[in-house]
């Protein structure tokens, strides 16, 4: 119980720091120079300052800090990223409505606001799958637009956030009475510089750094008509920090339309030669082009990311593990299972088609282990089938690991909640951001 409280505190502190602690020095230092202004004008200026502080936080979070991923998980980072963006936009509009300016000051502020408004509207449709997945009409509309706006275009447009931040930076530098507040400008310029350096560090100079590697494609073969298995390896593989259940970001910098990184789960941890496997389903323009890759192609890999193994380690070592998964969502479990056979493991693995049930020979081998019980079939398992095969006392002494389609995850979250399973004993890692 003490460990669970610690986990919750980490998540609460994570949100509080970015929402309140980051803007606080800006507010404290600028307040000294706003004496004599009306309350409405001061409120508008505070709104703009907080909005910019959150924009800097958004840029930092967009670099996918691995230390934060291990602490709270990348889905939580992206969720905060999105909420901060919407909040920053709202405050930016309050700032515009409550202040008056002209010339270049007005032009830089207005242009930044236009970029930010358009970008967030676009991102809500193309990047906020956690929202879109809950509205079928929006989901269908998104699929139609994806035929025009490919993933690389979406990622390129997302970088317009940097332009909006730079315009706000220039906007502030042009305001004489703000620039005269020395303590504020020290914080403003200093944090802006630190954010820029952090961004450039991850985007420009990545070779030879821990957590990033230049590898070679060793093997590329088809497991089914829509699923491919990539084997990657190379001397730099030891620079990657990979744990069971992790995912990595993969790109091929020298191959057109494959230069933007995409997340894929490890199906195996690196062997003694440093080789590991990724199993990938053809779901879009990036994954569709993987079939053209030949052995020897250079790959950029960043990682690992994920909290499956950390989640297990944060709980009782004697707890049973129940894994409920579907389709390609099972891939992280194939690296997780052999690393956790000290636990009693129950796997429920389903797929739409028999040919989509991956690595069945490996599953059969695991069933020879006393601590592994596995069920796999075409089509979803009924609730009763799963519940009747869970270990004794599963409501209190069992960890539930959910992966796969969003509908499957949401179904089992609701069912387990009704069964009074503690939410701290349920873990999911959705690739829907």
From TrEMBL:
Gene3D superfamilies: Nucleotide-binding domain of ferredoxin-NADP reductase (FNR) module (3.40.50.80), Translation factors (2.40.30.10). It comes from the Bacteria. Its cofactor is FAD. Residues 210-314 form the FAD-binding FR-type domain. The chain crosses the membrane at residues 12-31, 43-61, 73-93, 113-132, 153-175. Keywords: 2Fe-2S, FAD, Flavoprotein, Iron, Iron-sulfur, Membrane, Metal-binding, Oxidoreductase, Transmembrane, Transmembrane helix. This is Iron reductase. It comes from Oenococcus alcoholitolerans.
